[in-house]
Amino acid sequence: MCDEPVIEYGISPPQKKASAFATIKQKLKGHSPYGILLKLAKQPTLRATAAFALSGLAFAVGTLLLARSMPVEAFGHFALAIALFNVFGLLAPIGVDQVLLRHRVDPGPRLLMRLVATGFAIGTAVGLAYMASSGLRYVDAAALCLVIIAGGIIATLASLARAAMHELHSLLLATAASWILIVIGALSLVFPMENSLLPLCLFALGNVAVAIWGWAQVDSTHRVAIHERVNIPWNEAFSLLGIAAIGTVMLQLERLIIPATIGINALALFSVLASVAIFPFRLLTASAGFSIIPKLRAATSMRMKRKLVRTEFFFIIGLLLAATIAIVTIAPYATHLLTGGRYEVSLNLVIAACMNGSAKVLQALPRAILTGCGNDKDIALLNRMGTLGLMASIIGAFIGAQWELAGLLYGVAIGSMVGSVPAILLARRSIR
Question: Could you tell me the pTM of the whole model?
Answer without folding.
Answer: 0.73
